[in-house]
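Rotation project, supervised by the postdoc (A.L.). Task for the rotation student: set up a whole-complex structure prediction and record inputs and outputs verbatim in this book. Inputs entered:
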Amino acid sequence: MGGEYLRDITLYIAEGVGVTLKIFCVTLLFAVPLGVVCALGKLSRLKPLHFVLGIYTWVFRGTPLLLQLVFTYYGLPYLTNQAVSFSPLMAAYVTFIINYGAYLTEIFRGGIQTIGRGQYEAAKALGMSQRLTMRRIVLPQAVKAILPPMGNEAVTLVKDTALASAITVNETLKLANRVMSRDFNVGALVIAACIYLLLTLIVIQLFRLLEKRFAYYSVK
Amino acid sequence: MEIVQAKGLHKFFGKLHVLKGVDLSVNAGQIVSVIGPSGSGKSTLLRLLNHLETADKGSISIDGEYICQENEWGQSVYRPGKEVLRICSRLGMVFQNFNLFPHRSVLENLCEAPVHVKGVDAKEAEAHGLELLEKVGLSEKRDAYPGQLSGGQQQRVAIARALAMDPEIMLFDEPTSALDPELIGEVLSVIKNLAAENTTMIIVTHEMNFAREISDRVIFMDDGQILADDDPERIFVSPDHPRILAFLDKIIRKS
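Outputs recorded:
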């Protein structure tokens, strides 16, 4: 196994990193707002909405992500007579966004609930509307509580993107697998592992920085 | 001129009847202290006035504008939320636990509502905020965060924050009850300074000497009702109700 061979397969596998990153970024970009909206919904006074959102988070946190991916890509076209059918990458986007939205909903709800009643009362006594109170007082403080669990989710997401290989998306693990079965060589897997380690390291550091930025105040 | 007027207030928390028909009227410039045993409904009364709780029966009006009125069955019916919020923003509130915004600096705490509720220009709000900080003796803490301040300092900031909205009436809900004994004095002296400026105030407090010294009127509450509403000397020197005597006796013996 020469250096040239290693370089060639590394470059080949690295092509999948772009796809991995795409799934990662698109998921976060859409799942975060989805989570915020659903968390606010869960905290609202609309009882029917609680029920619907409860079903949503239960189903998507209660079934395997792999199953959801397969369902979206193979199941939906079959059930709808091809009326709903996605490209592999699109199916991955949709499933990841909805799945991670469910997890983030619960994380955001928990974070918002750490803000005590006194903050709402102080804001109201100053004449602030509920919307203004959320935007200026509650959500900025909730971010501090949300960042640590959200960092965990982001790390998990980096690794979960590999599940997209099951619906033929050519991401990092898929390409490594391909090399492995072609050459009967586990070197490709080691390279893929190193890539994931590097990506998760970056994510961890990024969240550490963010947490530091929110350490400027303490809650006594 | 009556600036606060409440009539026949009833409040239930579940089955608990916390206020049992309370009437209160306060004139502009008056300083009214509300005393009484814990659980007597003092705080609830205060919180009804600025809509932190809603009344079940009775009416409340602030400066001639009602926030809730009785319907034909005596139940309280509130104005639309936005109007209530607008009317109640004439009342400044100081809480037992300060409730400062921990993620904003002291000066930002003072500017938050004037800028985002009233639409005051940021520079103007800042200048006004600095004036108020000077008044409560905390100019040098303008850039500190609440978590870096002592309880007494936090409460003084909270008073300044309420004043920043130029309220017509200040409500104090046991402003010194969460403070260490050595920090109580600094907060009381800030309130005394406000009193000297003829600010209308309703103060729920357990500081009897302070209440006696500062108030135009003292209200004694027990079990959801007002038992006495009189000038401080009458209440503290020659109360004509055995419950008041027993209460004051307990407090004085404790201290």
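Student's summary: The helical segments of chain A are 3-43, 47-62, 65-79, 88-113, 117-125, 130-160, 172-183, 187-213.
Supervisor addendum: The two ends of chain A are 59 Å apart (CA to CA).
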